[in-house]
Design goal:
The protein is an alpha+beta fold. Helices cover 34% and strands 19% of the residues. Strand 1 and strand 2 form a beta hairpin. The protein starts with 5 loop residues before the first strand and ends with a strand. This is Cysteine protease. Keywords: Hydrolase, Protease. It comes from Palleniella muris.
Length: 354
């Protein structure tokens, strides 16, 4: 899926992330200038750049955890490459046994599962001086796993070979994490940041009952992770309440319909006054619209970011402030904005701290 569109709102940018090219090019199609005031802005770590990799889901989840820890007075900067490598190693075994294709695309709950399973290390300890976990790297490990399977060479031999190969291409992994005079194993370090179950996924679709979890049917949810299903009005309220309480929100959604289903070349600046806000009367129509888009396979998860703040225009229209992972050259030093209406229409799922 190609990049769809890009909006600039008061020098902050909201851009699409195509399914096959997650951030690999950044063309500017539409610009408008809309002044707004920041109401909440949570502290963040430096903006990272995922380059041409498909790892926005990992970058977004880790950026959310980093901001959450900063809000609690604990500064950490985490390694997306660590989780990407663990995913490659794990998938190599699955490909050997089941023949499934290795992919580095995923969802926010999968990033949390990898962190809960394998722990995490600091950015400085493992950030890819030797290479990146790219689509080419995934294809290379995929071919290796299939060759070992076809030749019946055994899992132990595959795992040793994959580990050595990834050491060569991505760099060897650290054994321990050293932080503020303390030494942790990667799992211990992860549990010092959050415990399994501390973060929960939420979504909003009408083909499943509300207030029950279900596995969201998007292509990247290959592991079948479940999210709690709630009405779209509740999803909006939960996001705003989390920010008001000092906690960021991990966001995953679709960029193709950020123009509310209108001509994707037009800016939200052309919408009539007040059309961005979501009132109680709007939620039912937006719920139906997003369901139609989802069922017609036009609404899917093509990007992920961390929601780190809120603002409003002079007309009282609320905006969410997001931290992206395309480097500081993107938008206003790497940050973007999203209207309430965009959120309601285009969110696939969010991750909230309990």
């Amino acid at each position: 899926m190609k990049r769809i569109c890009l909006y600039i709102l008061s020098a902050l940018v909201l851009a699409s992330c195509g399914r096959s090219e997650c951030s690999s090019h950044r063309d500017d199609n539409t610009k408008s200038s809309i002044a707004f005031k920041k109401d909440i802005i949570l502290p963040t770590t430096p903006v990272k750049d995922q380059g041409t990799t498909d790892l926005c889901w990992i970058y977004a989840m880790l950026a959310t955890i980093e901001t959450d820890r900063l809000a609690q007075g604990d500064s950490v900067n985490l390694s997306p490459l660590w989780l990407a490598r663990k995913s490659l190693e794990e998938q190599a075994t699955t490909t050997y046994l089941k023949g499934t294709e290795i992919s580095l695309r995923g969802t926010l709950p999968e990033a949390m599962r990898l962190l809960d399973t394998y722990g995490i290390v600091a950015w400085d300890a493992y950030h890819g001086n030797s290479g990146v976990a790219s689509r080419a790297e995934a294809r290379r490990i995929d071919r290796m796993a299939r060759m070992f399977s076809n030749n019946n060479r055994g899992l132990e031999s595959l795992q040793e070979t994959v580990g050595g190969s990834l050491d060569d291409s991505l760099g060897p992994t650290p054994r321990n994490v050293f932080m503020f005079g303390m030494e942790y194993t990667p799992p211990e370090f992860a549990r010092s940041l959050c415990l399994p179950g501390d973060w929960m996924a939420y979504t909003s679709f009408t083909h499943h009952p509300f207030h029950r979890p279900f596995a969201v049917e998007v292509p990247d949810n290959r592991q079948g992770h479940e999210a709690m299903n709630v009405p779209i009005g509740e999803l909006l309220a939960m996001t705003a309440e989390s920010l008001k309480n000092g906690h960021p929100v991990a966001w995953e959604g679709c960029m193709a319909f950020m123009d509310d289903g209108k001509d994707k070349r037009k800016s939200f600046a052309e919408n009539k006054k007040g059309s961005w806000n979501v009132t109680p009367n709007d939620t039912a129509s937006l719920q139906k619209k997003r369901q139609r888009l989802f069922e017609s396979h036009r609404l899917t998860d093509d990007h992920a970011m961390a929601i780190v703040g809120m603002g409003h225009t002079k007309d009282g229209q609320r905006l969410f402030i997001l931290k992206n992972s395309w480097g500081e050259d993107f938008g206003n030093k790497g940050f973007a904005v999203m209207t309430e209406r965009q959120f309601a229409l285009c969110t696939i799922m969010i991750m909230l701290r309990k």
